[in-house]
């Protein structure tokens, strides 16, 4: 079935999977050769194609192939690419002015975004918000604020964490390759605690997993030295790990009792992605500081730190900022994106997307031992692949399924410490018909891989 996206700029984009060339097509091959001569190989790409247009639930490449988008640019385009309100807001703003630097000549849209985040983030306490450019930059500033407030230095992050690619955020990030290897030395006073990972914890409860982490923190670091705990309410790059119930509330309670700032990194989980505006809401936790980015501005670069007024105000005047932080184009986009999340009921849409995806894969899991776990919340769902009859990660299978899906016109992303997880992050604007077709392609790729394995075993 061919659907159409809302009109953008007087044009419509067909909502269909369409393969008209081999993947990659000739134009993409030409551009990839140019990339090799102009861009370092360290800047990798998941897909071997170059985008020309995108919207709704599809990305169209320069050769005319149309791909079902189950990645959203890593959870960025929750409102869809070229969302009408976002496009119109940015067009109006770029015609007015592109930059003044908020720290020199401020503008009202920055204040409006801050007000919106103060209203939307968990908790009804008085808040303040500072705007930045990227998730990593916001994480760095959250750590700065926590250290300034507590007058302590140590920071605890968790196993499987991902917080960015800058020096400090690489130290916070758990996985070496490709994020950290060869880039040290890293920032000091960063420590790591065990996460609650239900699929691999042997049934450990959330409360017991928290007690394990807290004991390590108290014995190896000491609350008197600890400025902050930082954690993703659902791990992102680490594999979409949802901690067991009670894990996060226990950490928050301990942090409150010990003058430790609790930072929720909601860069990937924020803005309706998990079927709540913020993932912290699922367990009723109220972080001291919330870090946001990705889905905040419909694809434009913007991030934020929002937190308790007394904590955010503890930093000296001039201590926070940046030339482009909260630039007017991104602020206009953010206000339009937030309006879209709220007015178009995208929180509810994310929840229904999650039900569809988990239902499809749990049905398959019932008779496919290669699917070890199906987990996540809302439109942030992961499938973890294992060797049948074990919990041993099957990275090769994961890569093969993803590659086959790409070749058949579906954008999917892998993740996980062991590289054995396929994650599903569709735009919240995707139609159920298109979403089901994308899942069909992934399941067919899984079937094809089983046939290949059986053939190889027979030959052996």
TrEMBL record:
InterPro entries: 4NH2But_aminotransferase_bac, Aminotrans_3, Aminotrans_3_PPA_site, Class-III_PLP-dep_AT, PyrdxlP-dep_Trfase, PyrdxlP-dep_Trfase_major, PyrdxlP-dep_Trfase_small. It holds the Pfam family Aminotran_3. It is an enzyme of class 2 (transferase). One of its GO terms (molecular function) is identical protein binding. The keyword Transferase applies. Its cofactor is pyridoxal 5'-phosphate. Transmembrane segments: none annotated. The keyword rRNA-binding does not apply. PROSITE patterns: AA_TRANSFER_CLASS_3. Gene3D superfamilies: Aspartate Aminotransferase, domain 1 (3.90.1150.10), Type I PLP-dependent aspartate aminotransferase-like (Major domain) (3.40.640.10). Belongs to the class-III pyridoxal-phosphate-dependent aminotransferase family. This is 4-aminobutyrate aminotransferase. The lineage of its organism: Bacteria, Bacillati, Actinomycetota, Actinomycetes, Micrococcales.
